Amino acid sequence: MPMEPVGCRGFIGDYNTGIQWGQGKGRLLDAGKETVLKTSDNRIAIRHVFEARILIRFARGEQKFSAQGWARDLSESGLAAFVAERLELGEVVTLQLPLGEIGKETIAAKVSRKLGTQYGFQFTALSAKQRRAIQTVLKVQKEIPYHPVKN
Length: 151
Prior knowledge:
This protein is mainly beta. The protein folds into two domains: 1-44, no CATH class; 48-139, Beta Barrel (Thrombin, subunit H), CATH 2.40.10.220. 8% of the residues lie in helices and 44% in strands. It has one helix at 128-139, and strands at residues 27-30, 35-38, 48-60, 63-74, 78-83, 92-98, 104-115, 118-125. It has a six-stranded antiparallel barrel. The longest helix is centred in the last third of the chain and has 12 residues, at 128-139. The model is unreliable at 1-42 (pLDDT under 50).
């Protein structure tokens, strides 16, 4: 089974092969419960504090499911949330989240990180309108400092 980097705060590259682009040098580590890519300081996007209830929709086979979640941070590339329902790494989901004046927006994503009930979601298809709405929301939210993991 190929190892896929997840929870990659500074990963810029191919998530299927683990080949990294950009300035940082990374290596895949298997930390037991979580597989992570340790990199230098080249994060995909700056994270911001964002607390909101979200709805996660996903399908397994012919069955459709939904789960409630609590978003904790948001960036232009994804979000982190607590979710009581069990999700699988790589699982394709749609997220419904409040984005200020435009109201609730539905965004395609995949599960990119899992640690207990903490999940990371990477956006897979943002419209220009959604990206602008996220940027507007982020302008008024506190930035979360990034502290790279020492290799």
